[in-house]
Write a sequence for this structure.
């Protein structure tokens, strides 16, 4: 029986986003002073005495507080959800969904398929879903050269999924050779291979003739630019995943001004989340205009905030 899905991603973390102290924003811990009262012996009354006023010389010195107080935002990585139920189906990705339907890999030419598209188009999400459902080995393209044992018996997994398979092909011939060996070994054992990249495999910069011919033979399925409604749902879902409360009017104001890509929605959610965490403020339109000023198209509708609110005294 094939082992469960193995994640070989390098540099992954397990910190939980909810543990970053969102509930504790703006709270100053209380310090308990004075001696605790002792329990009296049976039959004796309890006498509570007032604590003695401490001498000024014995009081601990308190560091000067900055105003307003800014909470330290720890750099915990946000882990996106890659469940099938979380994937947003739309016209821009319906062809990819059809090629990844259950048991569809038996119809892949040479049992190989490649998903290509811009960052945030959903190809990595679909790769994770397919790998989980097939108990496949999931790894980044940059890790191919370090997995020599993989080529010995690739049939131990239900499939092989390589994310960003084109990431380092233009940097080293060793990566080209590793990908070629992987495709050959998987083909000999009948193991399906799913790749992702920014462009179709036929356009990947390779110098090995054998690898080039195999890449040109792979069925490539592109994911198109997401529709407006898909971007709206994506942005709202990203904010919910980060437990960030943003009103519908703020979302409606942001959408026409942000770049029309899924990657821009993810970057906007990240910036808003980090700023809300650091300053302990809810996300308003003025705050969003300040944090996303470099991303927004058209007038930012800036409004002045109290001095020191974002370290500048105004939104821009």
């Amino acid at each position: 029986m094939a082992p469960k899905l193995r994640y070989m991603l390098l540099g992954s973390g397990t910190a939980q986003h909810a543990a970053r102290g969102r509930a504790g924003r703006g709270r100053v811990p209380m310090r308990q002073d004075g001696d605790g009262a002792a329990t009296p012996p049976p039959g004796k009354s309890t006498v509570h005495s007032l604590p003695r006023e401490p001498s000024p010389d014995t009081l601990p010195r308190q560091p000067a507080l900055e105003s307003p107080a800014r909470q330290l935002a720890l750099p915990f990585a946000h882990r996106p959800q890659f469940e099938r139920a979380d994937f947003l189906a739309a016209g821009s990705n319906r062809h990819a969904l059809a090629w990844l339907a259950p048991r569809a890999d038996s119809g892949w030419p040479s049992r190989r398929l490649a998903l290509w598209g811009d960052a945030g188009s959903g190809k990595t999400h679909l790769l994770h879903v397919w790998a989980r459902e097939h108990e496949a080995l999931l790894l980044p393209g940059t890790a191919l050269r370090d997995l020599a044992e993989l080529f010995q018996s690739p049939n131990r997994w239900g499939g092989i999924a390589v994310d960003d398979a084109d990431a380092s092909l233009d940097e080293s011939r060793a990566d080209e050779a590793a990908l070629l060996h992987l495709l050959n070994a998987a083909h000999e054992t009948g193991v399906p291979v799913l790749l992702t990249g920014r462009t179709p495999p036929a356009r990947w910069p390779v110098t090995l003739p054998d690898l080039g011919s195999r890449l040109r033979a792979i069925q490539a399925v592109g994911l198109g630019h997401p529709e407006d409604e898909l971007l709206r749902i994506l942005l709202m879902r990203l904010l919910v995943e980060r437990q960030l409360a943003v009103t519908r009017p703020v979302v409606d104001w942001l959408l026409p001004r942000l770049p029309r890509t899924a990657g821009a929605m993810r970057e906007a959610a990240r910036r808003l989340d980090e700023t809300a965490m650091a300053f302990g403020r809810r996300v308003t339109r003025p705050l969003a205009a300040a944090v996303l000023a470099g991303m927004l198209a058209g007038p930012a509708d800036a409004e002045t905030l109290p001095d020191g609110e974002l370290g500048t005294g105004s939104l821009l």
